[in-house]
## 1
Amino acid sequence: MMSETAPLASLDQWEDDVLSRYPEPEHKSKEDYRNYDSPERDTVREFYRLNHTYQTYDFVREKEREFLAFDKKELPVWGAMEFLNTLVDDSDPDTDLDQLQHLLQTAEAIRADGHPDWFVLTGFLHDMGKVLCLFGEPQWAVVGDTFPVGCKHSDKIVYSEYFVNNPDAHDERYNTKYGVYEPNCGLRNVHMSWGHDEYLYQIMKNYMPEPALYMMRYHSFYSQHREGAYDHLMDAHDHEMFKWVNKFNPYDLYSKSPKPPVVSELKPYYEDLIAKYLPATLRL
Ligand SMILES: [Fe+2]
Ligand SMILES: [Fe+2]
């Protein structure tokens, strides 16, 4: 019996599923991934059923009130990363990387390509918002592809058929093309489904350069950065900034290597980067 809080054996199952949807172009050809039968696929499907059923406009506003008070914890940045790494799920210790290893691999791949240091730091921080799991949030309110709430759900969103279960899909305030928004109002005016992207953006918004903030805030918004499904809500500035989101995405998806990074060797470099851009402690 799958639980509604944690249908996935590990958060990695969502990321593995994204990778099978968007394989690295030069390496694999895209198969019809849904015809692929596996127990993991069933848990991912169940995960999306819950996500699409419960992520309503009201749910998102409620989570914003709850978490954007930042009254849960105060930690140094590296301490927040160690806190994130206490997230133990049923991932396979032989093949799966822990959260800190994924973040370091992403950041190191960005560094190896000679990008600016704030881009490297973004790679290191981008999944820190997953600490939401440690505050007891269900998986479907932490990870998963994100999408705008308060307007019609695009059929380009993965498993969009499950939105039939979402009350907003039957509410005329929220089920039209623009819903509560104006045409091309800009994503800064749009509420996204709640999860680790928005939470991290809100933690970091006073400290990092704007392209970094876009990468953090929209890295799971696949229906836009891969499918262009919400051009009608974006403004020209969003399109400019999404060039950075697109630049970031391959590092997130394709930097996973079975060779784990040596944390102790890398820590001094990242502690310096943290000190350059971020305050001594963060309020979560
Ligand atoms: Fe992420
Ligand atoms: Fe990631």
## 2
Amino acid sequence: MGAMRIAVLAACAVTLQIWGTACDRRTCQRPESESQRQPESASVEREREEMGKRTTKTDAERKKQLTPEQYHVTCQSGTEAPFTGEYWNFKGKGVYVCVRCGNALFGSDTKFDSGTGWPSYFKPVSADSVEERPDNSHGMKRTEVACRKCGAHLGHVFEDGPKPTGLRYCINSAALDFKESAESKAE
Ligand SMILES: [Zn+2]
């Protein structure tokens, strides 16, 4: 009986050891394979992961919902050519919302002519509008602006804007949709 108990215990110990080693190998291998990847693809993947957390839409659904230009800008952090977008020279009164999720982003009362060929604003509608994160791509140190609700890439923010904030939110038209204000419609 005693011998059998020892045998069972030994078998358990061996099983645990094998299982433990397998676990160790798994956890060790993951960071190793991650560090072997290119830093850029790792950051893109992290961004996708982050975006995935905040939205239930799949990439295929996004492709269906958006035009190729809207998809390129909001999902792949693309930039539209200046002076080509729908809103760089647009002067309607209302609110600019996220083209993907409808989150209110910028009011027409904060839009100004920056001369850059992209719609420019000196501040977002509210604290829930956008989030800002460092962007070191293309050899530049910039601050990316994304929709706080769905993570869509919108553009960048620079510190050379007009008063009262001194900020210039340089946004792609393709990331925006415009909702005309009720007063403006009544006029
Ligand atoms: Zn959004």
